[in-house]
Design brief:
Keywords: DNA-binding, Transcription, Transcription regulation. Pfam families: LacI, Peripla_BP_3. InterPro entries: HTH_LacI, LacI/GalR-like_sensor, Lambda_DNA-bd_dom_sf, Peripla_BP_I. This is Transcriptional regulator, LacI family. Helix content is 42%, strand content 18%. The chain is α/β, with parallel strands linked by helices and 340 residues long. The strands form 3 sheets. Strands 2-1-3-4-5-11 form a 6-stranded parallel beta sheet, sandwiched between helices. A 4-stranded parallel beta sheet has the order 7-6-8-9, with helices on both faces. A two-stranded antiparallel sheet has the order 10-12. Helix 12 links the parallel strand 8 and strand 9. It is elongated. The model has no long low-confidence stretch (mean pLDDT 87).
């Protein structure tokens, strides 16, 4: 007869009272020190003693209890999903999270894949965050914004190509990327432009938006845009390059530098001269694109914020109830190199 393994003895969780006894101070002093309360004057030796006692005991403040005392949490929810990679977005989210930590917020990532827009908003609201930052590629509706604000979120911020009614909008309009690329190709005399679109679902929203920008720029010049679906595989690129003479294209704007490099190599292997026969431009301004021969033309993207995003979110939390604020963050510029 099998027996259940013995369960470990219950571990005693250290409390603020334990820290106070070890440091020889009151529990209020422990709270002031560990919550970085600057309104109460406490000497540096006392602060050090409290922190050393907390470290020795392994004491960690209880976030839920602190939220109850404050009337709101210090949690900023960052839903995660099919967020396209790239140096700009990686830098952006690293800066956001480190900036919020410096302001004593806790950043929590929440997996939202498989949920509808309103199901996701309801799930986020259950955690009672003080702010929600919805990244590109994740849908937020006006109804979802209402769910979050009624649950206590003081700031709901979207990062996407278009603002959502009722939410603050930090607009990263990917149409600008397609416009900058095509405007560059038009200036080089190209009029029959293929636009490489990743077939991977995780990149679909950005790809379609960049295609819309490419079409907008081409329309003004009566140029032709030809969408070119492509898997991120050598075989897929080779198959597309084999059809190149029938397509009648003299330029390619690829979704990003990775797809541009993949396409450029396939074209070269198929005997297409770059840039004489076909000009190629990507996006992201990656270092490896500068090391190719010919060097890869690209679209450089930068973020233009009046102040760090973490400080903007903190101001929204401190002063809720105002009208939604919209900032246009994305700045783009084409970088001309040998491939175009």
């Amino acid at each position: 007869m099998s027996q259940l393994p013995k369960q470990p003895a219950e571990v005693s969780v250290p409390t603020s009272a334990d820290v106070a006894r070890l440091a020889g101070v009151s529990r209020a002093t422990v709270s002031y020190v560990l919550n970085n309360n600057a309104t109460v004057r406490i000497s540096d030796p006392t602060r050090r003693r409290v922190r050393e006692a907390a470290l020795q005991l392994g004491y960690v403040p209880h976030a839920a209890a602190r939220s109850l005392r404050a009337g709101h949490s210090r949690m900023v929810l960052l839903p995660s999903g099919h967020i396209p990679g790239g140096p700009l977005h990686q830098y952006f989210f690293e800066e956001l999270q480190s900036g919020l930590r410096r302001l004593d917020y806790t950043v929590v990532q929440y997996g939202s894949i498989g949920l509808t827009a309103d199901e996701a908003a309801t799930a986020w609201a259950e955690l009672r965050p003080v702010a929600v930052v919805v990244p590109p590629g994740i849908t937020l509706t006006p109804h979802g914004t209402g769910i979050l604000t009624r649950s206590g979120a003081k700031a709901v911020i979207t990062l996407g190509p278009d603002p959502v009614p009722g939410a603050h909008g930090l607009v990263m309009d990917q149409r600008r990327v397609g416009e900058s690329a095509v405007e560059h190709l038009l200036a080089r005399g190209r009029r029959h432009i293929g636009v490489v679109l990743p077939q991977e679902p995780s990149r679909a929203s950005f790809a379609e938006t960049r295609l819309a920008g490419a079409r907008r720029a081409a329309e003004a010049a009566a140029a032709r845009i030809c969408p070119l679906p492509l898997r991120y595989e050598e075989e897929s690129a080779q198959q597309l390059a084999a059809r190149w003479p029938q397509l009648g294209l003299d330029a390619v704007f690829a979704y990003n530098d990775e797809y541009a490099m993949l396409m450029m190599r396939a074209l070269q292997d198929a005997g297409v001269d770059v840039p004489a026969d076909t000009a190629v431009i990507g996006a992201d301004d990656s270092l490896i694109g500068r090391l190719l021969r010919p060097r890869l033309s690209t679209v450089r993207m930068e973020l233009a914020m009046p102040q760090p995003l973490a400080e903007t979110i903190d101001r929204m939390v401190q002063h809720p109830g105002g009208p939604p604020v919209h900032h246009d963050l994305l700045r783009t510029s084409a970088v001309h190199r040998e491939s175009s």
